[in-house]
Amino acid sequence: MKKGVFGKYGGQYVPDEMIKILNDLDKEFEKAVKDKEFMDRYYFLLKDYTGRPSPLYYAEKLSNKYGCKIYLKREDLNHTGAHKINNTIGQALLAERMGKKKIIAETGAGQHGAATATAAALLGMECEIFMGEVDVQKQKMNVFRMQLLGAKVNVVKEGQRTLKEAVDAALRYYVKNPEVFYLLGSVVGPHPYPTMVREFQKIIGEETKKQILEKENRMPDYVVACIGGGSNAMGIFYEFRNSPVKLVGVEPAGLGLDTGKHAAALCKGSPGIIHGFCCYLLQDEKGNPKEVYSIASGLDYPGVGPEPSHYKDEGTAEYVTITDKEALDAFNVCSRMEGIIPALESSHALAYAFKLAKTLDKEKIIIVNLSGRGDKDVEFVAKLNA
Ligand SMILES: *Cc1c(COP(=O)(O)O)cnc(C)c1O
């Protein structure tokens, strides 16, 4: 397989001046992952700083309610509250190794921005985050978090003023300032980012496999994860990709697939190019990314990673959708029955797991990647519940 290409997807659709920067990054990454000292430091920080391994929790009450064994991979218990920190620590260490003094990143809801600012603070690096003006207004708490961690938040005022424009602005800055390190938040973007982010997230699946074998002495029947760009899904799927375990990715159907207000790139998109790579994309006739929507801002992206795109064509994973309403119901059920408030993103995976469990025999095992905690969502959901 050609480097950075997943079937028809991936690649480097970028200006010439960026190819060399990306290739240097790729070379350094390849060396780093083979360097025991580098990887030991990454594992050490994930353990003592982030709190890994995250537990695999048998959710007994949900299992009894829905009719088969449901396990939750507790990425919500990581420092900063989601799986994103696994990747930001990995890439920040790489930046340090390359002698970079400054990290930049894009952010939508501010979760990746906060995780990046955290890693930059930890390693004593300068940090600048690009965030759309609409998101800055909606996600004030994360803006404060980033600022407290010492990051500069650069407000992007173009176009829709959300994630897509934030990525555009960060990429423009990177081309002009190649001495900085661009820390991308999901398995998207030009090569080597999709491979690099997956490598820093695959620990989720490696731990999960060990944990389920210890607890059940067998492999699970299903592994379910929500899909924004696809990094928590690839993180937990990768270890199981060549096994009989059924992998299910859950996309946001928003207000319903027929309303046009959704972000289900794999289920409803077609191959196209966005932000320097090829993937399943929600696009108009001219190939421009469509406006997308989800109740979970972390899932709100018109494209999806090249590797999850290839998994669709190969049949390695199956993709389904869950509406806002179904995700909200799962959010409330999980909170009340298990005392775990999940992120709205993760609630999509939970909602599908609940539906699926009802159709399965009680000995079957479903593992849900609980990608993050819902603290960021409580105010919003409380208003909806009222
Ligand atoms: C950002 C985020 C996601 C979506 O990103 P992926 O790259 O698809 O994992 C999912 N869950 C949570 C909690 C997030 O913060």
Overall 3D geometry?
globular
Mean of residue pLDDT values = 96
- Rg from alpha-carbon coordinates: 19 Å
- In the predicted model, the low-confidence regions spanning at least 5 consecutive residues are none
| Bound small molecules, deduplicated | pyridoxal-5'-phosphate
List keywords for this structure.
alpha/beta; about 375 residues; four-stranded parallel sheet; six-stranded mixed sheet; binds pyridoxal-5'-phosphate; 14 strands
Textual characterization of the structure:
With 386 residues, this protein is of the alpha/beta class. Helix content is 46%, strand content 18%. The chain contains 16 helices and 14 strands. The chain has helices at residues 16-34, 36-50, 60-66, 84-97, 111-123, 133-138, 140-148, 163-176, 193-201, 203-216, 231-237, 265-268, 306-314, 324-338, 344-358, 378-385; strands at residues 5-6, 9-10, 56-58, 69-74, 102-107, 126-132, 152-156, 181-182, 222-226, 246-254, 270-274, 277-281, 317-323, 365-370. The strands form four sheets. Strands 3-4-14-9-10-13 form a six-stranded mixed β-sheet, sandwiched between helices. It has a four-stranded parallel β-sheet with strand order 7-6-5-8, sandwiched between helices. Helix 11 (231-237) links the parallel strand 9 and strand 10. Helix 5 (111-123) runs parallel beside helix 7. It is globular. The termini are far apart. The model has no long low-confidence stretch (mean pLDDT 96). It binds pyridoxal-5'-phosphate. Residues 82, 84, 111, 186, 226-233, 298-299, 343, 345-346, 371-372 line the site of pyridoxal-5'-phosphate. Pyridoxal-5'-phosphate binds at residues 82, 84, 111, 186, 226-233, 298-299, 343, 345-346, 371-372.
